[in-house]
Amino acid sequence: MINQDVQLGEGVVIFHPDLVNLYGCQIGPGTKIGSFVEIQKGASIGARCKISSHSFICEGVEIEECVFVGHGVMFINDTYPKAVSEDGELQTEADWQLIRTRIKSGASIGSNATILCGITIGKNALVGAGAVVTKDVPDYAIVAGVPARVVGHTRKQE
């Protein structure tokens, strides 16, 4: 389902519009969205990105231009999620604080990675498949593992 409040840039390709859940988000021109992707309100995707199938992009995530998001990538926006408030009632939006995450231009996130909230993934950085990113990733860094650690860099050797 693509809600009416979604802002789609020119040339956005959504391969199976009936198999996505997009609401209240912005998607930049030329971006491609795979099947079974959810992008929540307040999330933004830049121009010429690729969001692969089965990925979840929650409120508060900003993805700049030319970013690759692999299959099954998960973002979170709450450090200490709970179902109920102190009085035992189901939580509402008023019961928690949104923590934003930023993915800088040219970054690539491998399949099945989990990106915790409040971090920045740097320009042209590479997150390995299955990594759990718990802290900022520098520009041009390659990170892998649980928790993700710098294992290299993406700059070409001269």
Summary, kept brief:
The chain has strands spanning 7-8, 13-14, 21-22, 26-27, 32-33, 38-39, 44-45, 50-51, 56-57, 61-63, 68-69, 74-75, 101-103, 108-109, 114-115, 120-121, 126-127, 132-133, 141-144, 149-153. By secondary structure, the chain is an all-beta fold.
What does this entry look like structurally?
The chain is an all-beta fold. It is built from no helices and 20 strands. It has strands at 7-8, 13-14, 21-22, 26-27, 32-33, 38-39, 44-45, 50-51, 56-57, 61-63, 68-69, 74-75, 101-103, 108-109, 114-115, 120-121, 126-127, 132-133, 141-144, 149-153. It is globular and about 55 Å long. The relative contact order is 0.12. The model has no long low-confidence stretch (mean pLDDT 96).
Q: Key terms for this structure?
A:
mainly beta; six-stranded parallel β-sheet; eight-stranded mixed β-sheet; 0% helix; single chain; 158 residues; globular
Spell out the blueprint of helices and strands.
Layout: E1 7-8, E2 13-14, E3 21-22, E4 26-27, E5 32-33, E6 38-39, E7 44-45, E8 50-51, E9 56-57, E10 61-63, E11 68-69, E12 74-75, E13 101-103, E14 108-109, E15 114-115, E16 120-121, E17 126-127, E18 132-133, E19 141-144, E20 149-153
Helix content: under 10%
**Major sheet details:** 8 strands, mixed
Determine the number of helices (DSSP H or I, runs of at least 4 residues): 0
Radius of gyration using CA atoms only: 16 Å
Distance between the termini: 47 Å
